[in-house]
């Protein structure tokens, strides 16, 4: 039987008019901390989270687990009493898609993997762009190098189009700096509803909090306990 705890049942209303749960499950650790798990293990993790009351799921195609997450969400929604509108699903435009002409393609790919008609929040994952090396056809992602032609404003205009197309309810930014956010806000037709950054006791982001408050943007913190699992990864490669 699913549970709804006092924490996971609390919401905040975004500047887009939509409600977002205050607590959610970030799906990066499923990939980054434990390596690529078998799909059935990922499905089990997501279903356990749903059973514990979680309704917000923070996803990204870069974590290579959206198909399994989608399978779990579809399974949960097929149970009597559970509906799509009870969920808040986040996905992101990956760095290798940071070109205006690629925004819709990558969002539709995530929707297909997640088995959804829309997401609740679509974020630009990183402020920098990556591009494929010419002639590399080893995989869809390929071997990456920096794309110095990344145009934040052009990308943001396409993000706004995704709202107009009904493919996402809200849009936002992830890992962007203060000057970059200000530049986008100055020309945006639709303001970012959410800015997601690392936020915890050792990285309090006071200037970012002030900026988001000024523009009525909801700040979403990831790694609220820091990233203790990364210490062993860093030491291993040092």
TrEMBL record:
Positions with a binding annotation for substrate: 125
Highest taxon of source: Eukaryota
GO molecular function, one term: oxidoreductase activity
Protein name: NADP-dependent oxidoreductase domain-containing protein
Site features described as Lowers pKa of active site Tyr, chain residue numbers: 92
PROSITE patterns per the UniProt record, alphabetical: ALDOKETO_REDUCTASE_1, ALDOKETO_REDUCTASE_2
Annotated signal sequence range: none
Pfam families: Aldo_ket_red
Domain called NADP-dependent oxidoreductase: residue spans: 23-227
Species of origin: Meganyctiphanes norvegica
């Amino acid at each position: 039987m699913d549970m709804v705890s006092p924490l996971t049942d609390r919401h905040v209303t975004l500047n887009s008019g939509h409600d977002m749960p205050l607590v959610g499950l970030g799906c990066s650790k499923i990939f980054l901390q434990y390596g690529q798990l078998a799909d059935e293990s990922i499905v089990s993790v997501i279903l356990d989270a749903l059973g514990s009351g979680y309704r917000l799921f923070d996803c990204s195609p870069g974590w290579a687990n959206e198909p399994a997450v989608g399978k779990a969400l579809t399974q949960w929604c097929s149970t009597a009493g559970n509906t799509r509108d009870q969920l808040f699903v986040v996905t992101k435009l990956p760095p290798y898609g940071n070109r205006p002409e690629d925004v819709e393609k990558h969002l539709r790919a995530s929707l297909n993997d997640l088995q959804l008609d829309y997401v609740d929040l679509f974020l630009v994952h990183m402020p920098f762009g990556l591009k494929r090396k010419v002639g590399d056809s080893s995989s869809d992602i390929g071997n990456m190098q920096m794309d110095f032609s990344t145009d934040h404003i052009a990308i943001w205009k396409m993000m706004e189009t995704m709202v107009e197309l009904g493919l996402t309810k809200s849009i936002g930014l992830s890992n962007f700096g203060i000057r970059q956010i200000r530049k986008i806000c100055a020309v945006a037709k639709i303001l970012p509803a959410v800015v997601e950054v690392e936020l915890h006791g050792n990285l309090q982001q006071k200037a970012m909090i002030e900026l988001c408050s000024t523009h009525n943007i909801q700040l979403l913190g990831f790694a609220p306990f820091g990233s203790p699992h990364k210490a062993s990864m860093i030491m291993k490669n040092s």
